[in-house]
């Protein structure tokens, strides 16, 4: 009989942001598959087996986990943040879709988690307080012309934009280009939040105007949130500024 | 000296999806402000005070909570799901933005939670596995023509769409009209997920094709997720179908 295959999210890295449901899945599993730094967030027992793999080997990792589950083990595939947002749940579904028929009968349990944009938003106010979108800036996943088109359309639509995978050593120019595209559509004063490592000891939150936003303010651990024309900044004397997007949009706005 | 003002999310209603961070905020607060059914999700001590208010009184609730915090109490404003997604964090920021200057010095702590679309996505596979957006269908919050424009643009952009506040007694026709608009842009077979009360005892998940999607399948407790042209359904013999959006988009797609 097949084992159960959990796909969990650890949240952004603050242990207090990992749900009891995810912890229960960890307690129930015998084998763990994931990117090493995400597995490091778990407190495993000596009898639990750890299979760390590189961040780019998602489909192979999913297949290996499914094979173990079919063989009868309870296994746990581990993502940072939420497993359904640019993470392992889609890789596991892809593997099932194109894999042997017995993989379809595995007891798949996806456990949601706090995704980066929600953690960043909470630390800065409420920038996602009205309509918003999440876009991965990785052109490993889709052609760059599609990313450009999406950025233009969502900015024209007036949505706040959360950018995942904004920059890496292999993708150094894409975020700067994204800012250029958005400057054609959005006001110069539109707030841009660089939310790095939200909730972790090395957290760093900075806010810029779109006109001045500098891609070098982001690294691989950063989620970038670009406001809409409605998004506002509240200056505070004794505390960091707040950024929020109002709940209401008046007649006549875009 | 001012007290602390927490704004927390309970998650979608399954106690195992509420974070330790949110529970710690509850333990630290003396007064609680929120919509009654959300306050009902908390286990309060006899010394903790509950101020339930109607779902439509968000700004008044935020002002009352800020007033209590300035007077020195640790208070907790309670949202369902995540407080930053169509919920109380934006209402509290609005109140601070337009309120007396001492409100800016309140120690505001927003605690993220599992928002409905993540919980629904987890129960059905990985429909949010690539770029996606969250749009409130409530035309109490913005003019209907803006909603129509946003739906068209995000569908043209190829984003998966999570609809919050899809339907209510006062807004009976909007979801059907939204489906009509999306049918002009998206393929007839695009999967539509009606995710009701994810993780709660009265959970109900159904999947339709966009061509056949019926607005009466949704109620106020439903988050509706409409796929992109890339979104796929995996039929399973012994289990419910899975819905997922692949991580990769090939050259030549939109």
Word description of this protein:
2 copies of one chain form a homodimer. Chain A has 254 residues and is α/β, with parallel strands linked by helices. Chain A has helices spanning 20-28, 36-39, 58-70, 88-98, 116-124, 144-157, 174-183; strands at 4-9, 31-35, 49-53, 75-79, 107-111, 125-126, 132-136, 160-164, 191-196, 204-209, 222-226, 232-234, 242-244. The mean pLDDT of chain A is 96. Chain A has 2 domains: 4-110, Tetrapyrrole methylase, N-terminal domain (Cobalt-precorrin-4 Transmethylase, domain 1, 3-Layer(aba) Sandwich); 116-244, Methyltransferase, Cobalt-precorrin-4 Transmethylase, Domain 2 (2-Layer Sandwich). In chain A, helix 3 (58-70) packs across helix 4 (88-98). The longest helix of chain A is centred in the middle third of the chain and has 14 residues, at 144-157. In chain A, strand 7, helix 6 and strand 8 (160-164) form a beta-alpha-beta unit. Chain A is elongated and about 60 Å long. Chains A and B meet through helix 1, helix 4, strand 5, helix 5 and strand 6 of A and helix 1, helix 4, strand 5, helix 5 and strand 6 of B. Chains A, B: It holds the Pfam family TP_methylase.
Counting DSSP E segments of at least 2 residues, the number of strands of chain A comes to: 13
Q: Roughly how many Å is the radius of gyration of chain A?
A: 20 Å
CATH topology of the largest domain in chain A: Methyltransferase, Cobalt-precorrin-4 Transmethylase, Domain 2
Per DSSP, the total helix count of chain A is 7
Protein name (chains A, B): Precorrin-3B C(17)-methyltransferase
Pfam family, one (chains A, B): TP_methylase
Enzyme class (chains A, B): transferase
EC number (chains A, B): 2.1.1.131
